[in-house]
């Protein structure tokens, strides 16, 4: 007997509310336009940490938002098969993932991989961004397995 193919779902929107500050607002504003951007230090050229007020390499606060391709690789992931809270009952299995973003200097984003057969997931798999527009105006970057 073969087991059914399980496809990864997404957690419900109700589980988080967005609070931004001057260091994260440009990221979320670009996301609303379905553009993935990354903070870059204009003093030393390094890719910065998302949300950090200083460049970790040269301590400058100078920042520019560089467009990324939206492609990346699966750096790490886990599969959540059992709902830990009632709000997650219809959302399993889901796949929290760490995605290394192309063009972001080795920096990574914590997100979810959605719509993927669980047995197709591999560390190092090519993924690409898939935008999810929430009813409250927040747009979240999720990832799908690249073709
Ligand atoms: Zn710098
Ligand atoms: Zn860095």
Short description:
The protein has 147 residues and is mainly beta. 5% of the residues lie in helices and 31% in strands.
Structure, described:
By secondary structure, this protein is mainly beta. 5% of the residues lie in helices and 31% in strands. The chain has one helix and seven strands. It has a five-stranded antiparallel beta sheet with strand order 5-4-3-6-7. Strands 1-2 form a two-stranded antiparallel ribbon. It is globular. The two termini are 29 Å apart. Bound molecules: zinc ion (ZN) (2 copies). Residues 41, 43-44, 46, 55, 57-58, 60 line the site of one zinc ion. One zinc ion (ZN) is lined by residues 41, 43-44, 46, 55, 57-58, 60.
Extract low-pLDDT stretches.
none
- Percentage of residues in strands: 25-35%
Could you say which overall geometry the principal axes of the C-alpha atoms support? Answer: globular
Number of strands: 7
Quote the average pLDDT: 95
Radius of gyration: 17 Å
- Helix/strand-derived class? mainly beta
Spatial strand arrangement across the major sheet: 5-4-3-6-7
Distance between the termini: 29 Å
Helix content: under 10%
Q: Order of helices and strands, N to C?
A: HEEEEEEE
Number of helices: 1
Quaternary state, please?
Answer: single chain
Bound molecules: zinc ion
Described by strand count, sense and barrel closure, the largest sheet is: 5 strands, antiparallel
